[in-house]
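quick one, 101 residues, struct below
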Amino acid sequence: MTSVRPKLKPDTHKAVTAWKTQTGQTVWMKASGSWSTNPAEIGAFTGEAAEAALSKARTQEGEITDPYFMEVTDKGRITGRETLRETIRANGPTVPYGEII
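---
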């Protein structure tokens, strides 16, 4: 499963994000290549390292679903065109679970 997302230039810092298939939790690839549910551990990749990270993520489909790039700062902080979407993914729903009718 994939979605159309904006293309990011090679020198733009990127993170790889996906959903954990078993639970649906948002996960981010850490600099080490492992996955984390903690947005403070987002790895920032550029150029060929970014492409290699996304390729590695695609080989893990089954454990994770729909890996893709999102723009981040060089420190791995969420930024760029999808800021609102990614911020919501990092912080959880905008409406507390108990208030959903």
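The chain has a mean pLDDT of 84.
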